[in-house]
Design brief:
Strand content: under 5%
CATH topology: Chorismate Mutase Domain, subunit A
Helix content: over 70%
Low-confidence stretches: none
Number of strands: 0
CATH architecture: Up-down Bundle
CATH class: Mainly Alpha
Largest sheet: none
Number of helices: 3
Mean pLDDT: 94
Structural class: mainly alpha
Shape: elongated
Radius of gyration: 18 Å
Number of domains: 1
Distance between the termini: 48 Å
Amino acid sequence: MSAPLSPRDCSDMTDVRAGIDALDKTLVALLVERAGYITRAMELKQVNGWPARIPARVEEVVQNVRREAETQGLDPELVDQLWRQLIDWSIDLEEEGLSRDKA
């Protein structure tokens, strides 16, 4: 399978859809990798007695991605909403693991 075309090089919707599908596959793989870091964070938080939610870190992550979105020309509000949902999911995962290990 060849690499997807750049958006500008797509000549029809088949090309566009192939590019989107390829990016979606990559995004899922990156989310899986990110989840691995969340699992490791949970383990380290357990050892250190830290809570799953650290509000200052949540805001730091959100501000980092907002700045990156602005730099790359993406709507920072969209990124803010997406990352807050991603962070909430991550914290839920950590809390589940932390409470399971306490039982």
